[in-house]
Amino acid sequence: LFRYPFSPHPQRLNKSNPSSTYEEGNKWYQSNRETMSTYQPEDSRKVTTHRLREMKERGEKIAMLTAYDYTMATLVDSAGMDVILVGDSASNIMAGNTTTLPITLDQMIYHGKSVMKAVKRALVVVDLPFGSYQGNPMQALDSAIKVMKITHADAIKVEGGSEISESIQRILSAGIPVMGHLGLTPQSINKFGSYNVRAREEAEAKKLIADAHLLEELGCFAIVLEKIPATLAERVASELSIPIIGIGAGGNVDGQVLVLHDMLGLNEGFRPRFLRLYAEMGQAVRASVGQYITDVKTRDFPNSEEQY
Ligand code: KIV
User: Fold this and answer.
1) What average pLDDT does the segment 8-37 reach?
2) In angstroms, what is the span from residue 247 Cα to ligand 1's centroid?
3) Is the beta carbon of 255 within 6 A of some atom in ligand 1?
4) How confident is the model at residue 113 (pLDDT cuts 50, 70, 90)?
5) What is the CA radius of gyration of the chain?
6) Which residues in 230-265 are b (16+ Cβ under 10 Å) and which e?
7) Which distant-in-sequence residues (6+ apart) come within 8 Å of 69 by Cβ?
8) Which of 14-18, 68-72, 134-138 has the lowest mean pLDDT?
9) Which atom number of ligand 1 is nearest to the Cα of residue 88?
10) Disulfide-capable partner of 248 in 95, 96, 227, 277 (CB 3.0 to 4.6 Å)?
11) Does residue 212 have its Cβ closer than 6 Å to ligand 1?
12) Is 89 in the pocket of ligand 1 (CB under 6 A)?
């Protein structure tokens, strides 16, 4: 996912005109302030890879968000989410790294375990991190088994196409469901050199289409397409039978994924064009914390009713 530049000291919002400090993206204030609603899934049974396929067949869009910890996963799952991704974006969001590369398999397992303790309905997918599956198929299988055994997650996700096909095959042969990830694959940032839109050129688009077909033939149950032209994503979604989940890939795919902290406005330095803001929680947290500090310093907190 696009996480550059990651700033631990993000720009402050201008309170009189909240969107003025962002080039693009801050649509929450303009369009969603009055329209937040709760969602009640029709089917309360646990989501499976099979049911995601059925959702595609009947044209029901799939909703997916990230979560890395118990508290957020409880909220996201009880809101009716279809798929929760324990993404390696935890490297940026949780650990403050500038890329997804540093996060380790054990750290992903820690996040996966925390999320799994919370989730009752959503299908949970855990990212295999950089360096845990690219070495060879046996390394990939060992990593995937470790994730499944310790976290009890439902599936794993890996980035890449033909380059990692043997590893995907090996993992699938152990009965572990695999989600693919093509387009902007952040674990390859050092090869790409930027987080720009991928597959604008014909050669890269052709490879992406071929890779998507390959992942389906191998047996992946779904594919994430990140930051590619909407027309290309639409073509892939129409040619494949497995669900295509987009992030910055337009609306004509089978589902959407965002990073929870981005769409809640907690990651204030990150406002790409594809992001819709559903809250400004960064502001809310700062205001609440500021008020608490004031209350402590002015001896307003605790009052006589807030003590024993
Ligand atoms: O790690 C991540 O968060 C992802 C995205 C698809 C959201 O891979």
Assistant:
1) 49
2) 9
3) no
4) very high
5) 20
6) bebbbbbbeebebbbbbbbbbeebbbbbbbbbbbbb
7) 94, 111, 114, 115
8) 14-18
9) 1
10) 227
11) no
12) yes
| Residue appearing with tokens 């499944």 | 148
Whole-angstrom distance, CA of residue 47 vs CA of residue 153: 12
Atom of ligand 1 nearest to the CA of 89: 1
CA atoms within 13 A on the CB side of 112: 29
Can you point out the beta strands (E) in the chain? 62-66, 83-86, 123-127, 155-157, 178-183, 222-226, 244-247, 255-258
Q: Provide CB contacts within 8 A for 138, sequence distance 6+.
A: 170
In this predicted structure, the answer to whether residue 79 has a pLDDT above a threshold of 90 is yes
pLDDT digits (tens, 9 = 90+) for 150-192: 999 999 999 999 999 999 999 999 999 999 999 999 999 999 9
- Does residue 1 line the site of ligand 1, with CB under 6 A? yes
Q: What percent of the chain has pLDDT over 90?
A: 86
Residues facing residue 224 across a β-bridge: 181, 245
Structural tokens at position 120: 């009752």
Sign of CA dihedral 276, 20, 90, 246: positive
User: Directed axis angle between helix 137-151 and helix 165-173, to 10°?
Assistant: 40
* 273 secondary structure, DSSP code: T
Q: What residue type is assigned to position 190 of the chain? A: N
How far is residue 103's CA from residue 218's CA, in Å, rounded to a whole number?
Answer: 27
Give per-residue pLDDT as tens, 222-278: 999 999 999 999 999 999 999 999 999 999 999 999 999 999 999 998 999 999 999
Of 68, 157, 46, 179, residue with least CA distance to 113? 68
